[in-house]
Amino acid sequence: MPPRPTDPPGSAPKQQRISTGLVYPDQSSEALELAEKLGNALERHRVGAETFDWSLWLPRGTKEGLAVVQADQSVSISGRRAVRLTYEWWQRQRTRGPSADETWKVGYQDPLSPLLEIDELTPDHLVALVETTKTPSRSRTRVAQATANVARALAWPDALVLRLREMGKGYSPYKSQLPRHLPTDEQIEQLIDSLSATWQWPVAVVATYGCRPHEALLYAEIQDNKLLHVSDGKTGGRQAMALPDKWIQRWSLQNKRLPSFKRERSNRDVGALMGQALRRVGSEFKAYDLRHAWAVRAIHHPQLSASFAAKSMGHDLAVHTQVYQRYFDGHHMEAIQALISSAA
Questions:
Q1: Banded pLDDT at 178 (limits 50, 70, 90)
Q2: What is the per-residue pLDDT for 71?
Q3: How big is the chain by its Cα radius of gyration, in Å?
Q4: Whole-number pLDDT of residue 223
Q5: What b/e string do you get for 269-291 counting C-beta neighbours within 10 Å, with b at 16 or more?
Q6: pTM of the model
Q7: How far is CA 29 from CA 33, 149, 195, in A?
């Protein structure tokens, strides 16, 4: 490197130690970006294109240098690298759970895949990617959230982050994810009776215990006390209770049996296998409808509180009440009407 401004006149170039002030490995990509910036500046100085500016690299802290790199609009970045930096930024935001890989794939990797072929990413590319999706929809909300976080990871203007988030508004998963008509217990019994012996067990476990399809196929064990032990999955381990209890005996659920399938897949892909099995027998409802039906069955059970049902299903109370709010409301109105009628 050329002499520092504080070196004696006529000092020769020499090796210098430049501390980034960044943490390894979490901020290794930022350090790499600084190194590339430094290398470019040294090369331009070497060929006489410009004077080397030491002010960005003095010991007072290269965090200032990093800020310059992030704010310098002349420094281009490819879409592939932007996605990688976003992943590193996303990992640092909080401790990730067992389903982190699947969350990244669904929430970021898939929505951001069109950016990977872009050599010089600009804010317009992020806006255009959101505009390719239908509004309002889950896919638009997902793409808007992902691109907004790309902008945050790259330290692009807050106005851009806000604009991308606004573009994703209008979709509510709590209004959209439940079918209008859930299967009755009789329809569920008819469906499971029609399945092969190996598919009967996991499908009946979803219906009886309200667990997720991938949990039944990968992580479920029925204990001697008839509770279901889920060892892992989207929200980690837990216990779940049978509702109704009679289905345990109907399909011999304490005798575990599973179909043959490749276990080295994502939870999402494994869960999709159950949907395929239901479609093969002509089912009019989906595997997740069995889980929703359990939740509504629990709402009408006089001894089960909402918090207990939520814990059994493996999500928090806020999610439980938001998703099933209309069923809670309907049940309460029904109970009040019965009370009024009996008093009349």
A1: low
A2: 44
A3: 28
A4: 95
A5: ebbebbeebbeeeebebbbbbbb
A6: 0.58
A7: 6, 16, 51
